[in-house]
Amino acid sequence: MPRSVAVHPVHRQTVALALQRNGFLTQGDLAAHLEIALSTVSNFCRGVRVSIAKFEEISDALGLDARTLIQAQGRDAAVSETEAPPAFYAYDEGWVGRETWVEILQQQVSAGCRLLFITGIAGVGKTALAERLLMALADWGPPLRENFDAQDQGADFASVAARWLEKLGQGVTPCDRADVPQLLNRLSEALQGTRRLVLIDSLEEILWGSEAAEGSEFQDPVFLQFFQRLLAAESCQSCVVVTTQTLPTQLLTYGTRYRNFWATHLLPGLSAPEQLALFAKTGLAVSPDTEAHGYLVRLGQAYEGHPLALRVMAGEMGSRPFYGNVVAYWQRYGQEIEQVEQAIAEAAAGQAVGAEDKWRLDRFTRTLRRNVRARLEQTFLRLRQEAKFAYVLLCEAAVYRCAVPEDWWLSHLDYWDCDGETATAALDALRDRFVVEEAIAAGQYTLRQHTLIRSLALDHFQHLDQLS
Q1: Has residue 351 got a pLDDT over 50?
Q2: pTM here?
Q3: Which of 81, 110, 395, 450 is found 20 to 30 A from 166 (Cα to Cα)?
Q4: Does the structure show a pLDDT above 90 at 243?
Q5: Is 440 helix (H, G, I), strand (E, B) or coil?
Q6: Alpha-carbon dihedral sign for residues 6, 9, 11, 17
């Protein structure tokens, strides 16, 4: 007997209607009512497996029969996998804003873009935006999808190509799987001749870098050949949308010849109005005449609109023991935000260095540690393994509270016996991974860290003496 089950795709709309019918304005309301994690409710509504006990508990609260929800019925029982609605990992009813982004991306795809990169730090909403784009382009038909963050499938090109070809209705024999050049030809021709959207999540998982390499490269070089063929083809009806925390340098160098066919977009955090809209979606009081409003605004500012962090905290505020009491949440954790605000104010007054700052934006609650810090830690781990001096530079530069000139950053590597060329390569590695932000301040080129990145980097900075 399975330990976990999921809502069948044909019943997801039924679940959404039941949520409203039973008076739950948001998934957060339902989670608070049942006193269970918001992520569990979200997974249930998105068709992701949850434990049988939780599945039955949620179904009962919605007045639905749990056994029926996991089964297809009537004509829908014969619906093939390619015809079923796509399962979304990140996009759900908590989505807010980003309308301009969706419009821009949709226009680029419709104009013939073949390769579209959505980049940014972990948790900023890359996957959710890509899935929202799939909805906007529903007339393109069921998308092909690959999530390299999942560890249960082969991530080499041959395995991926075989899966995609089978979803495109083409048979792939064991002998075919061993013939990589043939798979490359067949997949390239199929995508060039048929209009399909392809979504690749977490491309950084199949890239590698080193101090010697000029950027990140594909672990399996056939992926590079595949993307090159799509860009260089005389015509191509498909579009590949990629979310990644790291850009493949080799491909970008090649892609400069085909600027009309590819684009990259660095996704920022939510704007101030979008931040409040997110809180409102979870049922929190955001009216300007409430005491909660000011605290929510300050939370959004401290996290620079980071969607994952804000959703985690909104879930905490909406669940036990706070049940929507934003003021009580602030009284419990507000000192963490006040420390950040004080440091930023001191930086504006000229105190740019704060090596003794003790920011804990990524970890002052258990849920933040589990959902936000854990995601960001993967970026730091890859840096430490692949580009030691880039990791050192990121940690050393955390002493700066604000944007400072580039040479301030690079000066920290002088103490690590790092020559100028290697130091420049280290900084480029940080740029490629979007953990450093560039800005022009008072007419001068400067660098800074996102508050969440700095919070974690400060913690790592305390342990640099243990780096071998």
Answers
A1: yes
A2: 0.81
A3: 110
A4: yes
A5: strand
A6: positive
- Residue 65 scores a pLDDT above 60: yes
- Residue 74 has a pLDDT of 46
**Are 266 and 435 within 8 A, CB to CB?**
no
Whole-angstrom distance, CA of residue 54 vs CA of residue 70? 14
Domain edges within the chain: 4-78, 99-266, 272-348, 366-466
Which tens digit of pLDDT belongs to each residue from 451-467? 999 999 999 999 998 88
Phi, psi of 438 (to 5 degrees): -100, 145
Give ∠ CA 437-438-439 in degrees, rounded to 5: 125
- For the domain with range 99-266, which CATH number is right: 2.40.440.10, 3.40.50.150, 3.40.50.300, 3.40.50.10490? 3.40.50.300
| CATH number for the domain formed by residue range(s) 366-466 | 1.10.10
Burial 332-359 (b: 16+ CB within 10 A, else e): ebeebbebbeebbebbeeeeeebeebeb
Whole-number Å distance between alpha carbons of 154 and 148: 9
- pLDDT per residue as tens digits for the range 15-26: 887 886 777 767
What CATH number does domain 4-78 carry, 1.10.274.10, 3.20.20.70, 1.10.260.40, 3.30.230.10? 1.10.260.40
